[in-house]
Write a structure and sequence with these properties.
The structure is a homodimer.
Chain A (H helix, E strand, L loop, with lengths): L2 H16 L5 H8 L3 H13 L3 E2 L7 E2 L1 H24 L4 H11 L5 H10 L26 E2 L8 E7 L4 H10 L6 E8 L4 E6 L2 E5 L1 H4 L2 E4 L9
Antiparallel strand pairs in A: 1-2, 3-8, 4-5, 4-8, 5-6, 6-7
Bound molecules: manganese (II) ion (MN) (4 copies).
Chain A binds a DNA duplex through helix 3.
Amino acid sequence: MSVAVENFVKAVYKNAKRTNDTKPGIIAKELGISNAAATDMAKKLAVKDLLHYEKYQELKLTVKGNQMALNVIRKHRLWESLLFKMFDMSLHDIHREAELLEHQTSDLLANKISEYLGNPKFDPHGDPIPDKNGIITTTDTSFTLSKANEGKTYIISRLMSDDKEFFDFCAQHGLKYGNTITVSKQFIKNKMTQIVVNNNTILLNEDFSTIIYVNENESKNVQH
Amino acid sequence: MSVAVENFVKAVYKNAKRTNDTKPGIIAKELGISNAAATDMAKKLAVKDLLHYEKYQELKLTVKGNQMALNVIRKHRLWESLLFKMFDMSLHDIHREAELLEHQTSDLLANKISEYLGNPKFDPHGDPIPDKNGIITTTDTSFTLSKANEGKTYIISRLMSDDKEFFDFCAQHGLKYGNTITVSKQFIKNKMTQIVVNNNTILLNEDFSTIIYVNENESKNVQH
DNA sequence: AACTATTTTTAAGTATACTTAAAAATTTAT
DNA sequence: ATAAATTTTTAAGTATACTTAAAAATAGTT
Ligand SMILES: [Mn+2]
Ligand SMILES: [Mn+2]
Ligand SMILES: [Mn+2]
Ligand SMILES: [Mn+2]
């Protein structure tokens, strides 16, 4: 299937995970195309039996569409893991490369990469890597920093973004998958979260506190 | 530039190296497209200043086209080198993957791969890898087996093919980049070459004896 | 040199993946 | 409930990269 189709199916999959309002417009925004193009593509994918399309209704992936999405996501996260391990590249850079490489990787090569890395269950952002059958065996017990308790110490389990500025910020302050942070104060009304990392106190706004995921202990989501 | 453009420019470059008859038809055959499509593309590339096009004349790359070709070739051969080193993949498989990956690789990633491998000068087929400026510093002193002398012993310096059957044949008989072979007899009239590898005698027809390149000694083309 | 075969070019048409503009439906706000 | 705002859809059109069919030019053969 084409790059456009794979990216579209992946975007639908990811959006459906987060919200229950997966209509053309959101996908269009995500992919940087017009709403008209997204509607058009949705219709085409319905013909290919990759999703169910009904005018003005939510887009819902078929089993086939779901498999395709997971296969692309698998390749994306395996590439990220490999590039991160082998080369000194930032989280943002590995994401950018993986966004392209994911579409040009045979299942065979994906399996080789996975094997080489010891079949990792998480990528460098803390996102789970589906296995060769498209199955995610790990359960995610993490939650966003915005919902963490004052005074408690957590482990970063996921940095859910693909924004360069965010990753630069993370790199600068030691916000890294697996690292420990303490929530010193929650400013509920102003939607800000104050944390302590490496003895530095940082005040996060909502944009950042809702894409940084943490776990209470090192158990589940940390397997690196 | 698009995949189609990159593959076209690369095909022109490679053909011009071998022959002096680089017209649309040959490129069309190489890329598996119609002659009409090749002529069409040639015209478009002329507008983009990637090659010089004159009706019924040879296609000649511009400096810009040449650079693009070398950049794609560099990425191709770096990928082949990396995949060959890291994973247990055949020469044919690494070529297949590289044919796609070469178009989705940033210059930055290419440099990282090169660095990681110690800036190799040759890929696993024995083909030279251009440096980041598109320069090939090695000089190729090798020649085809069909032109080798009876009784002499040589070192395989290049396996110039992308045919699976050929690579299977090579793997089966120990014909590998860097290995030693002896030419036991040249059947000039019948265009066949008899060689001895690992104490086995093999009779090669013209198809194979003209794509296996050898060197007299281990000097130039062997730097693995 | 003339004829034939081959190659190249032109012409017309297709599929994919987009665009903008306007109509239709839905959602939100008053 | 009505009006306004937003989103979705339709319609028409574009660029890229191909196709087949036929015309034109070149290259090879007698
Ligand atoms: Mn990513
Ligand atoms: Mn992608
Ligand atoms: Mn190759
Ligand atoms: Mn290619």
